[in-house]
Amino acid sequence: MLKKQIIRFIAVGIVNTLVYYFLYSLFIYLEFDYKLAVLFSSLIGMLFSFITFGRYVFSNNNKKLIGKFFLVYAILYVCNIGIISLVEVIIHNYYISGFLATICCAILSFILNKWYVYK
User: Fold this and answer.
1) Tell me, what DSSP letter sits at residue 109?
2) Cα–Cα distance between 38 and 8 in angstroms, integer?
3) DSSP-derived 3-state class of residue 35
């Protein structure tokens, strides 16, 4: 069961991550501050992810879990900002920093969703 969930999480996560990163890049291109770019792309991506993870990964459409899901995304937001801030100092590129932060946060997202939100 866990192996299937991980495979589904990766597949759905790739789609969710592409949606998030597209939005993040769009906001950076539109000259938003990177913190606002992360915030807006996270809020939009969060709603999309709540539906797709619940339905396709964890087979749970319980709308009451959205509070826990939002808490996880708040944690992910702080981690995302922290990673981008650290990496950007080294490589001076918000696109690559955002990409690397997205990968790290995707891993953390599975762990928190699996064992906290949809347990």
Assistant:
1) H
2) 25
3) helix
Cα atoms in the Cβ-side hemisphere of radius 13 Å centred on 23: 20
pLDDT at 11 over 90: yes
Token digits of residue 108: 């953390």
Confidence grade of residue 46 (pLDDT, cut at 50, 70, 90): confident
Q: Are 38 and 77 in contact (CB under 8 A)?
A: yes
Q: Which domain holds residue 33?
A: 2-117
Q: How many domains does the chain have?
A: 1
**Residue 62 phi, psi (nearest 5):** -65, 110
Of 81, 87, 85, 91, residue with least CA distance to 100? 87
Instruction: Tell me the torsion sign for CA atoms 59, 62, 67, 68.
Output: negative
- Asked whether the predicted pLDDT for residue 50 surpasses 80, the reply is yes
Judged against a pLDDT cut of 90, whether residue 119 lies above it is answered with no
pTM of the model: 0.76
